[in-house]
Design a protein that fits this description.
Chain B: This is Amino acid ABC transporter permease. The complex is a heterodimer of chains A (339) and B (364). Chain A is an alpha/beta fold and 339 residues long. Chain A has 14 helices and twelve strands. In chain A, a hairpin with a 5-residue loop joins strand 2 and strand 3. In chain B, helix 6 packs antiparallel against helix 7. The chains are: A alpha/beta (339), B mainly alpha (364).
């Protein structure tokens, strides 16, 4: 009996130890010739198969960027759709190499779940959507209001925290599915609807009869930095994921886009020369080809292009840039120096 | 059987004497019956006209969400636009004729296997050949078909694969378990009891969770067993435990005399079971067996929680498009219809089979 127990224990420990060897993910991705990327099972704009079954979205573009940096080919990705419960174990067990699936960067996920967050690709936050005719200008004026909210999510907890902190009386109407909660709000069962800002914007643009009759209140009652995660233990892989995303922001800051990247190869700006590998060195440090950032920009685009295409003005979601604009335009996207 | 005779006979007699008489006899024969009739009619009146209004009269058949919102009814444009995503999931778009053919083949194979005229020894080989063709179609990689790994399979073919393999492979295991539970050998019996009670003691959803989340944590990094295979094995092992108890019920219903008669003519254990006991026992338990088959078919939709795109999950993916998200009811109605058609056919077939196999018993 005791020996069976210790055998089981040894198996478990071996499994955990196996995940902690340095350089292993980077090398195994390289020899496999494919990045295995954990994505959402279906969240329009962030990660979902399109009509033809091809993956698209802001989170998916991070996977594509990493593949472009590693192999010079953004299609060398195998997507593993993961449910919310599956996502962390799938990454911990090595079933996926990176997780780009609307995951909020929190302390416990790094400190006790053995993950590292490499890049925030979307700053979200919980807000309120109300009808204009309600005449409310701030979430603090929602005293006595009924609010539609999805059950069993942190959204629901945040709502009660907010009500308690501001000493206002909010009556939550909890509904199991997100779609039904949205329908209930539009059909007038609640005065307001609460969810992540990006989701509220999507409801406003696509589900309300007249979008201009609805307004998203300015308050954000929670912070949801949605980030890409890797397993702890392989710093080289962590660096590659982190800098693949940094390159996308840096390209936007410097005005390098998929349209002009070939012309920019002749740029005299030393920063752009370093980014695009005209001046070698950056790729070598990361352990990939010097054209790594060139491939990302050429095949995936810079961050602004990806944003506009998936969730911004050229998409169905039509989200404002807001916090996700560049730092010098009032947002939080700030590329670290590539040198 | 029972319903059809109720429906046919009185109406056949009744219509001759006029509908009023028929209604009095069948719908208003007593105060309690009259009340039930009125309540049922009222319920139908509440449900049916609005459903027709929504689903047919005010519905939009083609067109974008804006057109649907203007019309105010059901938006079947969702289905015309997304039917391939719903039916075939994320299977590569240009190759979707392959899963389509696979589904057709599955249905042909099921229809063949269901017809008693084809119950000959060669049927097994035909079905095996059919499965080989289906696998070649789905996987490809030979005969000039591009390789499609099974993480891209989805929709109706995936639902059919999970349920057909789940049912077909769990059944022999279930028979062995049921026999084992009634065995004279204590070790065999104990093992079977533990297996059955353990699997019946946990919900399928937790089996799938274990298979997809816990199991990989125990494997060394990089060593992964295919997600589809894990789910399929989970479904087979789970279903077998339930089927085993149903089969055991049938075994217990066989009179002792049958066992003794088989022993007395010198049959071995396996001959006795194969020739005498099991044919009678299995015939007795057709209704609960088919009930379990239908449950298994519908339970495959639980694979949604481990990120496999069966019919229901691919419907959900089609609905994740923000533009169409408001029309989730239409999407789920379509998925429900497909599930209903398959389950209804299974249930009808079980009634046919019961009638056919009990023909001998009735004549006596």
């Amino acid at each position: 009996m005791k020996s069976i127990f210790s055998l089981c224990l040894a198996t478990v420990l071996l499994g955990i130890a196996g995940t902690a060897e340095a350089g292993q993910t980077f090398d195994s991705v390289k020899s496999r010739g494919q990045v295995v990327c954990g994505v959402h099972t279906g969240l329009g704009g962030f990660g979902a198969p399109d009509q033809k079954g091809n993956w698209a979205g802001l989170d998916v573009d991070v996977c594509r960027a990493v593949a472009a940096a590693m192999f010079g080919d953004s299609t060398k990705v195998r997507y593993v759709p993961l449910s919310a419960q599956q996502r962390l174990p799938a990454l911990q067990s090595g079933e996926v190499d990176l997780l780009s699936r609307n995951t909020t960067w929190t302390l416990t996920r790094e400190a006790s779940n053995g993950l590292l967050f490499a890049a925030v690709d979307f700053y979200d936050g919980q807000g309120f959507l109300v009808a204009k005719k309600l005449g409310v200008k701030s979430a603090r004026e929602l005293n006595g209001a009924t609010v539609c909210v999805q059950t069993g999510t942190t959204t629901e907890l945040n709502l009660s925290d907010f009500a308690r902190a501001n000493k206002i009386d909010i009556k939550p109407v909890t509904i199991e599915s997100f779609e039904e909660a949205a329908s209930a709000f539009i059909s007038g069962r609640c005065d307001a609807m609460t969810s992540d800002g990006s989701q509220l914007a999507a409801i406003r643009a696509n589900q309300t009869p007249v979008p201009d009759d609805y307004v998203i209140l300015p308050e954000r009652i929670s912070k949801e930095p949605l980030a890409t995660a890797v397993r702890q233990g392989d710093d080289q892989w962590f660096n590659l994921v982190k800098w693949s995303f940094q390159a996308m922001i840096d390209a936007e800051e410097r005005g390098v886009s998929s349209a002009n990247v070939d012309a920019q190869l002749k740029s005299s700006d030393p920063n752009i020369q370093r980014l695009l590998g005209v001046t070698p060195g950056m790729g070598k440090s990361l352990g990939v080809d010097e054209k790594w950032a060139y491939s990302i920009i050429k095949q995936v685009g810079n961050y602004g292009e990806s944003y506009d295409r998936n969730v911004g003005k050229d998409s169905k979601l039509k989200l404002e840039r807001g916090l996700n604009d560049l730092w010098n335009k009032g947002g939080l996207m700030y590329a670290m120096p590539i040198r | 059987m029972a319903e059809s005779s109720l429906l046919e006979n009185p109406s056949a007699n009744g219509w001759l004497r006029g509908p009023v008489d028929w209604a009095r006899k069948n719908l208003f024969s007593s105060p309690a019956n009259s009340l039930l009739t009125i309540v049922a009619l009222w319920g139908l009146w509440l449900a049916v006209p609005p459903a027709i209004q929504w689903g047919l009269i005010k519905a939009t058949w083609i067109g974008d969400p804006a057109a649907c919102r203007a019309a105010g009814g059901a938006c079947w444009g969702l289905v015309t636009e997304k039917y391939r995503l719903i039916l075939f999931g994320i299977y590569p778009y240009d190759e979707q004729w392959r899963p389509f053919l696979a589904v057709v083949l599955f249905i042909v194979m099921l229809a063949t296997a269901a017809n008693p005229r084809f119950w000959r020894p060669w049927l097994g080989w035909v079905l095996v050949a059919g499965l080989v063709v289906v696998s070649v179609l789905m996987w490809g990689g030979i005969l000039g078909l591009p390789l499609v790994t099974n993480d891209r399979w989805g929709g109706l073919p995936l639902t059919l694969i999970l349920s057909i393999f789940g049912i077909v492979l769990s059944f022999p295991l279930a028979v062995v378990l049921a026999l084992g539970r009634r065995s004279q050998l204590p070790a065999v019996r104990a093992w079977c009891v533990v297996y059955i009670e353990l699997w019946r003691g946990v919900p399928l959803i937790s089996v799938l969770f274990m298979a997809s989340i816990m199991f990989p944590l125990f494997m060394p990094e990089g060593v992964t067993i295919d997600k589809l295979l894990r789910a399929q094995l989970g479904i087979i092992l789970f279903t077998a435990a339930y089927l085993a108890e149903i089969v055991r019920g049938g075994l217990q219903a066989i009179p002792r005399g049958q066992y003794e008669a088989a022993d007395s003519i010198g049959l071995t254990y396996w001959q006795k079971m194969r020739l005498v006991i099991l044919p009678q026992a299995l015939r007795l338990v057709i209704p609960p067996l088919v009930g379990q088959f239908i449950t298994t078919f519908k339970d495959t939709s639980l694979v949604i929680i481990i990120g496999l795109y069966d019919l229901l999950s691919s419907t959900k993916v089609a609905l994740s498009d923000p533009q169409w998200r408001a029309f989730y009811v239409e999407g789920y109605v379509v998925a429900a219809l497909i599930y209903f058609v398959f389950s209804y056919v299974m249930s009808q077939y079980s009634q046919y089979l019961e009638r056919r196999l009990s023909a001998g018993a009735r004549r006596r």
